[in-house]
Every structure is written in structure tokens, then in C-alpha cells.
């Protein structure tokens, strides 16, 4: 039995393109995917993967010293990154299906347990931190 490589490649390319279109539609519907967190008097926002887009250090944090500010920033960045990863997972998992969820997890985009985080405002539920 011969395999038609060109036909198989076209089939895979078509599936990838359809998944890309569905993902783009979903992201457009949900809006920008990010994570936001506040620790003490420090608030940060990050893109999925943890790239900071905003860091706000309030006056109380500045008065607490460099070590305390550093600790608050790092803590907020870690939480915001988990939230952004959870938001990305929630956005793309329905499009990618079960096998895609594994790939999302491999990229660090894990489901975020909202029940354990009372400050989390899931952007897919009308909020968006």
C-alpha cells in the first residue's frame, strides 16, 4: 500500500489551518489574554509566558525597602504568570481538544484553579484581570 505523501501533507496543513482559524476567532472573541496579580502594594500584568506588560509599585511598597519590593514583585509576577497561563489554556483548549491540551501543558499553560484563588477574575467569565 502506497502512501500519497502530498495528499497527507495537504490534509495535515488543512487541519492546522482550520485550528489556527478557530484559535484566532476564539482569541478575538475573548480579547487579549493576560494575567494580573497584586501582592502587597505591587501590581503586575503579564502576557502568557510571563512577559511583564505593566509593573506598578505603590508608595507603601517603596517604603518597605529593596528586599521587600523585590519579593512582592517576584511573587506577583509568579501569580500573574500562572493566571495568564490559565487564561491561555482556557482560551485555546476548547479549540485544540484533548491532544492540544497536552501541548498547552507542555508549553506551561496549565489550567488555573479559580476555586483556590478568590482574587482571580477569569477573563472568560466577563472579568479580566
Automatic annotation (TrEMBL):
It comes from the Bacteria. Residues 94-129 are annotated as: Disordered. InterPro entries: YbaB-like_sf. GO terms for molecular function: DNA binding. Residues 111-120 have a biased composition (Acidic residues). Keywords: DNA-binding. This is YbaB/EbfC family DNA-binding protein. It comes from Actinokineospora soli.
